[in-house]
Amino acid sequence: MFAGDCASTHDQVLSIQVTTHQQADIVRNISSQYETVLWSPTSPEYIGAHTEVHLFVPANKLGTVTDLLQTHHLTHQVLLDNTAELIEMQTRNESSDPRSSASYYERYHSLEDIYYWINKTAQDYPDMVKVTLIGSSYEKRPLYVLKLSGQQERAEKRAIWIDCGIHAREWISPAFCLWFVQYSLNFYNLNNDITEMLNSMDIYVLPVMNPDGYKYTWTTNRMWRKNRSLSKDSNCVGTDLNRNFDANWCTKGASNRPCDEIYCGKFPESEPEAEAVANFLRSHKDSVKLYLSIHSYGQMLLFPYSCSNEEVPNHAELFELVQEAAMKVKRYYRNNYKYGASAKTIYLAPGGSDDWAYNLGIHYSFTFELEDRGRYGFLLPPSLISKACNEALLALKSIALRVIQKTQSQP
Ligand code: 9B3
Ligand code: ZN
Ligand code: ZN
């Protein structure tokens, strides 16, 4: 059944330890061939000496790839040998389950189901939830934002923005948005933190910013990252929405080649999904005090800049906020989140929504990278959703409550 020590009948995800620049070249090369999918880092150009690389390799290419690794003295471990099984686990019982049970939030949901959920949630909580259409995707799917409000009416309330699902394959991200909305609605007037948050701020939640890509990960390719827009002069599909914002757009850390995972698009906000979010934030920039974008994986609390090695003027303040949040996550969930300015903590990358929002004037701007820490990568089993969401929720509350204090005197 097994031909040779490393061969497998399954697709695998390998963890490869790169230690030299020459090895980095080799792995960059491998990762752009053999039908592999780079899981971490996001793009071959982020692979340097001393990088741990996570690479999805289809079964029929495993022999070739592992031979190459061996030839160049690259050590690797098999991170996952059961990707098909994990994908099956993530999509099991989806449509048949009741849509209101508690376990609803401990499963992943199809796009159709999420649209249904948005509608149902607005109906069930008419006093607290308003749904707004902020635009539509490339394939004309609606982009709905839920506005959560507590019962204390105020004329010009401050606000928080949270978007999930910029990247299609990061399924824990939309799951978190659903989790967060449900938690907020259930615990308003029961949990002090959430009550204070909703009394001081409106919270805008965009559960799936990239619905076309998300749909595609359910039907065709679980590892898809970008949106699904077509390019005129290329057969490759999709723009990386987190490279399409107007923040040092398409400089180092993004690509102008439509076939790449970090393709920046034709021009800033060329993609309807990015444009819709940018338009909404531009028209709410005076009220929105806190911007939050949810991604996975890697467990990090990041803040601007990503698009430059420069420190933002309130770097120290932002650093304190993520440090405190990470400390709480460590204390309550015994989990280590990395934290810091993006360019130094993850990689230099332009065109991201958080940097753009910061430059717009939203000076509390963050990207969360949720679990997994590498064991399952994008294929985090449903049984681990609750832990991933609870710790992110704790970090979110910690930061939001601080921002509420800090912006108190302002309108
Ligand atoms: C990238 C950028 Cl460009 C940003 N501004 N903030 C965070 C990131 C990291 C995510 C990405 O888009 O690569 C991680 Se999936
Ligand atoms: Zn992402
Ligand atoms: Zn990520």
Kindly describe this structure.
It contains 12 helices and 12 strands. The chain has 411 residues and is α/β, with parallel strands linked by helices. The strands form 2 sheets. It has an 8-stranded mixed beta sheet with strand order 5-6-8-7-9-12-10-11, sandwiched between helices. Helix 9 links the parallel strand 10 and strand 11. The radius of gyration is 21 Å and the shape is globular. The model has no long low-confidence stretch (mean pLDDT 94). The structure holds ligand 9B3 and zinc ion (2 copies). One zinc ion (ZN) binds next to loops.
Give the structure's gist in a few sentences.
The chain has twelve helices and twelve strands. Helix content is 35%, strand content 18%. It is globular and about 65 Å long.
The separation of the N and C termini measures: 69 Å
Instruction: Kindly state the percentage of residues in helix.
Output: 25-40%
CA-based shape: globular
Average pLDDT reading: 94
Small-molecule binders: ligand 9B3, zinc ion
The string of secondary-structure elements, in order, is EHEEHEHHEEEHHEHHEEHEHHEH
Query: How many strands appear in the DSSP assignment?
Result: 12
Instruction: Identify the strand order in the major beta sheet.
Output: 5-6-8-7-9-12-10-11
- What structural category arises from helix and sheet content? alpha/beta
Beta-strand residue percentage: 15-25%
Biggest sheet details = 8 strands, mixed
